[in-house]
Amino acid sequence: MAQLEHPANLAKMASPHHRLITLILIRCGLRISDTVALRQDCITRDKDGAPYLRYLNHKMKREALVPIDEELERAIAEQISYVNGTGNSGTHLLFAHDRADVYGAGHISANAYSTALRRWVRECDVTDENGNPAVVSPHRFRHTLGTRLINLDVPQEVVRRILDHDSHQMTADYARLSDTSIRRHWEAARKVNASGSVVELDPDGPLAEAAWSKQRLGRATQALPNGYCGLPVQKTCPHANACLTCPMFITTADFLPQHREHRIQVVQIISAAEARGQQRLTEMNTRVLGNLDRIIDSLEDETHAAPNHIEEEDNRAGR
To answer: Is 52 considered catalytic here?
Structure first.
């Protein structure tokens, strides 16, 4: 998705029709059949002036709304001007054909967009995590949005409404797949505490499910810029901040950049404290520096010998 959403790659999509369709699919999660049939009056606003995309959910045979940002609103306004300036000024369609004399007043077909999408993905040389050519279909954007929202801890009911699912079970599938993927990577990652010691969590132990529930709760409610808090949320933290002397601190290689930047800052603080003769401040930060060094060394060991079985499992599962 990072490759597909890169501005340079989006600019390679020559047709303004296809470019806007792609943005709507990515940001709104519409089905392709609903997207190509959008009308020019598809923007509506609430009492506070916030814009929404109004469309017909053909599968459920009902009108639906999804919130959009101002950037997408401007892109839709530009599309309307483009369509009306290409000989289709009488059309009510957002994606009317450029050549109205040949195609009539109809809109771009879902098949035509799918073909253009495959060609664009090849031209941009989009690859998967193994370096193989990526396979992208319009509907995958819908699945991606659903998973992203769940990963951001958006309530399932809100995700259901945004995607206009008729069944709560359809939305629950995103949460189940997301939780399974996050848990698998968490269990496989090297986890170290504030002293740099490896934290062992048995994924098959009798408390595995309860421990993972505690971890997900901590990630959602006590996220730190450089790791995770392992303290149960019912307890009050005795530490003034998320410092690296806390025995409940846990971190992974995902936070190596933050740890390296933190180390630079700590070294600067120690140098300044020593110059001013502030012995206590020097001692406190020297302890933090030692922990940082152990954490960085331990986590760098993982990055130098990263296991490949996670990717292999993902490939077998078709993710």
So the answer is: no
Q: Cβ-count burial of 274 within 10 angstroms (0-12 exposed, 13-18 middle, 19+ buried)? A: middle
Query: Closest Cα partner for 182 from 44, 62, 310, 51?
Result: 310
Catalytic residue among 59, 74, 260, 276: 59
Joined tokens for residue 165: 């699912």
Active site residue 54: no
Least confident range of 199-213, 220-234, 271-285: 220-234
Amino acid at 169: Q
CATH 1.10.10.10 fits 7-128, yes or no: no
Q: Is position 174 annotated as part of the catalytic site?
A: yes
61 in catalytic set: no
> Of 31, 97, 107, 160, which is the active-site residue?
31
Is 139 annotated in the active site?
Answer: yes
CA dist 159 and 168 (Å) reads 10
* Percent of the chain residues topping a pLDDT of 90: 32
Q: Would you say 56 and 92 are in contact if contact means Cβ atoms under 8 Å apart?
A: no
Between helix 168-188 and helix 156-163 the angle, nearest 10°, is: 120
Least confident of 190-194, 238-242, 265-269: 238-242
Segment 168-175 shows an average pLDDT of 76
Token representation of residue 80: 């309307």
Q: Report DSSP state, residue 214.
A: H
Q: Which helix (H) or strand (E) is 315 found in, with range? A: helix 309-317
Our answer to whether residue 6 is catalytic in this structure is no
Q: How far apart are CA 276 and CA 278, in angstroms?
A: 6
- Catalytic site residue from 139, 161, 190, 294: 139
